[in-house]
Design a protein that fits this description.
The chain has about 325 residues and is of the alpha/beta class. The chain folds into 2 domains: about 120 residues, 3-Layer(aba) Sandwich (Rossmann fold), CATH 3.40.50; about 170 residues, Histidine kinase-like ATPase, C-terminal domain (Heat Shock Protein 90), CATH 3.30.565.10. About 45% of the residues lie in helices and about 20% in strands.
Length: about 325
């Protein structure tokens, strides 16, 4: 583990960048054990003793880390305070934040999700679960980089698209489609996590009928990707998820429709600590933060979201 490793490197010429994890943990022994796990998984690790130290490091050099793994409870500045500060900074608001906690307190989890935590992981950390969660975070990093490259090359062309439609069946299609849909907006980085969450809910829950309890079991066992691939290849789960974007005078309207029976969406629109560990609630929370408005229709298998145009202030 390194104390000062500010810039990303590549494992070989032409290879994908080696991702850097900033591990924020006040317990030195726990930090050493977890750091070794992260390095075994192929990540470069830098450590900070508390949230204040981590915030100072990232504010000085925002690209010193691709992913933040932080303990929830620490002196000086805890993990929740760190999350809120990072989300306020333009240069760090995109960072996937994984929160480690030794408590199953639902209110604390709900508060963290509202603040912008990507995923909670219970301590002691199960290696299989840690690997799966980090893979999700790594995909988010890759999607953001692809989005930045696409915007740099094609932003003018994206501005001329009035409507675009996609059909999806597989989990590996979520990232590219979410990136393309987000590219239509000047707020692409802000809404990308929300679009990704809506598409994931549509495929995992609507199309492939993977319920929250079963998903958590597969996630903990490290078999989630295999189970989703198996269901996607099973003729019993036929159909596809529709995703569309349309320009309106007031902004961009996104719609996601899945072939599933829907769910009791009304009870998830109001934040409730008792449901903070439910995947549907987590996805809705992420989308609500990203968009000006979020509306479910009928049984809940159609959701629309609007990102408003910027309005110029007179003073």
């Amino acid at each position: 583990m390194s104390d000062m490793a500010p810039f990303p490197t590549s494992s070989a010429a032409g290879a994908a960048p080696v991702l850097r994890v900033l591990l924020v943990e006040d317990d030195r022994l726990a930090a050493q054990v977890l750091g070794e796990q992260l390095e075994t998984l192929g990540y470069l690790v830098e450590t900070a003793d508390n949230g204040a130290e981590a915030y100072a490091l990232l504010r000085a050099v925002p690209d010193r880390a691709d992913i933040v793994v932080s303990d929830r409870f620490m002196p000086v500045l805890d993990g929740l305070g760190l999350t809120r500060r990072l989300r306020r900074e333009r240069a760090t608001r995109h960072l996937p934040i994984i929160m480690l906690t030794g408590t199953s307190d639902a209110a604390s989890t709900a508060e963290g999700l509202e603040a912008g935590v990507m995923q909670y992981v219970a301590k002691p950390v199960e290696p299989a679960l840690l690997r799966q969660v980090l893979e999700v975070a790594a995909r988010q990093v890759a999607e953001r980089r692809q989005l930045a490259a696409a915007l740099g090359a094609h932003q003018a062309g994206f501005a001329n698209i009035e409507r675009i439609d996609f059909h999806l069946r597989r989990v590996d299609e979520i990232g590219p489609v979410a990136s393309l849909l987000a590219s239509l907006s000047p707020h692409a980085e802000r809404i990308l996590p929300g679009l990704r969450a809506l598409l994931a809910n549509g495929i995992e829950h609507g199309l492939l009928r993977l319920g929250g309890a079963a998903r958590q079991t597969h996630l903990a066992q490290g078999t989630l990707a295999q189970e989703l691939a198996r269901r996607a290849a099973d003729p019993a789960y036929e159909g596809f998820v529709e995703a569309a974007a349309q320009r309106l005078p007031e902004g961009l309207r996104y719609a996601v429709r899945d072939p599933g029976p829907g769910f009791a969406w009304r009870r998830f629109l109001t934040p409730d600590a008792s449901r903070s560990s439910v995947d549907a609630a987590r996805g809705i929370t992420v989308a609500r933060v990203a968009f000006k408005s979020l509306e479910y229709h009928g049984t809940g298998n159609l959701v629309t979201a609007i990102i408003a145009n910027e309005t110029q202030r007179l003073w």
